[in-house]
Design the sequence.
């Protein structure tokens, strides 16, 4: 079979780094056919309670990872995917990667992670901070307050608030809680760029994470004067971010001999510029045209869409020129918890016999809209958009002795759809059209959830035609980096896939959900916009209690030791 240029078929590999594992996918360049895939679970998963190897306990809201787990994906998943595809390595012309964001790590000038330096391995701040590391919320609050006080022009590009997840909040936390580790860090880099560095031996930065997570707007980062005003020692932070900045779809470099040995791929093939799991999925879903919002739904949800112009949208995660694809303004918003919320109920609150998603979905689907008498807030992992406050928490209103697990399950499904509707309305109110939705990610298999989203948002909902959207998107970018297509748009048209308008709004359900959404919005504004800060006070009480318990345990250990 001949490829797009009349030669023998060629292939690319996409590697998607998720929260708990990494996936490699082998894709045919001519038509995007997915021929083989393999998953490798991170040995250490998410490090939340204590560092490995008997390291110290971690405070609340920490979430770390081990960068060696990322290399292991290259050593195990890529060769396994090639074997599953039956593709000869010599036929592969490029590799592309995507990562969760903002997942960041401090390194030496040569890219060595600080947590791999023996004398720093016991220091928590030397490790990778996963996207859902939310312990930097106080630092994010200071960043936001000072930016508004100084009228910094970039703050409006992030909806008026920078998240605790973003690079600057995490960097400031390192400086103020572990100055020695901060001093030792020559670089502070997104894992999306670090893994590319490991693949080709060349340090690069991608415009996507630099813009959305690194506060880089109009060709520059926040000024040294602003950073000094936050903390005099923070004035040099931008130097730790500085590196060659490349647009999406570019070639970052060539696969090194070391990475070729890890992966089994030919040395010298194209390595695409790093990217984010959500943003790269837009190409896989053929959703690069303005107005088509992609919701990448998994443990959390990221919402991305292209626009024709720049607008300031309150509560959005960012707007970046070329942030999704060159030639368009890319918008991002998100929800910090979605699938994790449903999983919490199944794991911790559903009784035996009803403790599967399938059983709860079947029972919940039999209910008319509103029959459970509940409304919930989807803040079980904080709120990313529109409130940008990770100290907020979940809420269910309407519980009675007649409430059953399937009632709560459906209310939680609906709460995440309400959160997405809040985001859509914020975009539309700011002059950024949202014409339709495309769903991607593992949650698309839940037909009830998909129909709820169509009904709540009153928009047709399409579904990506691939179960591996980020990995396919990374493969599409690899094809562009290797020169097989002249642009991401053309590669997306040939290699991406989507099932159009699979779910359409039901008019009766739309009206019923409008009433429930009004109640959701009232609760959202009351508990999220200062009407009652009980959630923040409860979080403070919890943290104080945990800190006191940890201090008591340390005292006991000292006495025993």
Sequence:
């Amino acid at each position: 079979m001949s490829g797009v240029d009349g030669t023998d078929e060629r292939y690319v590999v996409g590697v998607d780094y998720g929260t708990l594992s990494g996936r490699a996918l082998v894709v045919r360049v001519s038509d995007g056919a997915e021929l083989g895939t393999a998953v490798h679970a991170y040995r250490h998963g998410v490090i939340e309670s204590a560092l490995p190897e008997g390291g110290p306990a971690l405070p609340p809201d920490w979430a770390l990872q081990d960068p060696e787990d990322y290399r292991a994906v290259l050593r195990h998943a890529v060769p396994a995917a090639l074997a599953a595809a039956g593709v000869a390595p010599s036929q592969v012309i490029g590799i592309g990667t995507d990562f969760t964001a903002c997942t960041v790590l401090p390194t030496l000038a040569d890219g060595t992670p600080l947590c791999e330096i023996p004398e720093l391995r016991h220091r928590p701040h030397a490790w990778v901070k996963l996207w859902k590391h939310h312990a930097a919320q106080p630092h994010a609050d200071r960043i936001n307050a000072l930016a508004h006080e100084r009228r910094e022009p970039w703050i409006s590009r992030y909806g008026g608030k920078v998240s605790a997840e973003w690079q600057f909040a995490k960097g400031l936390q390192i400086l103020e809680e572990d100055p020695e580790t901060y001093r030792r860090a020559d670089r502070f880099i997104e894992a999306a760029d670090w893994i590319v560095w490991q693949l080709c031996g060349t340090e690069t930065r991608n415009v996507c994470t630099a813009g959305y997570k690194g506060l880089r707007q109009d060709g520059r980062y926040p000024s040294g004067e602003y950073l000094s005003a936050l903390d005099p020692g923070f004035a040099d932070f931008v130097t730790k971010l500085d590196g060659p900045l490349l647009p999406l779809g570019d070639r970052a470099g060539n696969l090194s001999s070391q990475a070729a040995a890890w992966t089994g791929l030919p040395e010298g093939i194209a390595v695409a510029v790093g990217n984010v799991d959500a943003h790269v999925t837009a190409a896989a879903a053929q959703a690069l045209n303005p107005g088509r919002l992609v919701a990448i739904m998994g443990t959390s949800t990221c919402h991305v869409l292209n626009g024709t112009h720049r607008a300031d949208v309150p509560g959005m995660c960012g707007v970046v020129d070329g942030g999704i694809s060159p030639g368009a303004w890319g918008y991002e918003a998100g929800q910090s918890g979605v699938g994790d919320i449903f999983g919490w109920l199944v794991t911790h609150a559903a009784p035996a016999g009803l403790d599967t998603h399938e059983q709860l979905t079947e029972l919940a689907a039999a209910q008319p809209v509103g029959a459970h008498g509940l409304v919930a807030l989807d803040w079980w992992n904080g709120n990313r958009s529109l409130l940008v406050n990770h100290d907020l928490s979940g809420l269910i209103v309407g519980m009675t002795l007649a409430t059953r697990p399937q009632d709560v399950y459906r209310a939680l499904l609906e709460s995440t759809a309400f959160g997405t509707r809040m985001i859509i309305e914020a975009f539309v109110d700011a002059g950024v059209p949202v014409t339709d939705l495309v769903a991607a990610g593992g949650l698309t298999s839940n037909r009830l959830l998909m129909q709820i989203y169509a009904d709540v948002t009153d928009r047709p909902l399409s579904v990506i035609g691939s179960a591996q959207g980020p990995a396919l998107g990374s493969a599409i970018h690899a094809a562009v980096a290797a020169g097989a297509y002249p642009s991401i748009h053309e590669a997306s048209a040939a290699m991406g896939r989507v099932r159009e308008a699979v779910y359409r709004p039901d008019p009766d359900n739309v009206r019923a959900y409008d009433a429930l959404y009004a109640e959701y919005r009232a609760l959202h504004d009351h508990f999220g916009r200062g009407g009652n800060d009980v959630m923040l006070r409860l979080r403070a009480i919890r943290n104080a209690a945990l800190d006191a318990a940890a201090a008591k345990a340390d005292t006991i250990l000292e006495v025993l030791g």
User: Anything to note?
Assistant: Residues 197 and 203 are 5 Å apart (CA to CA).
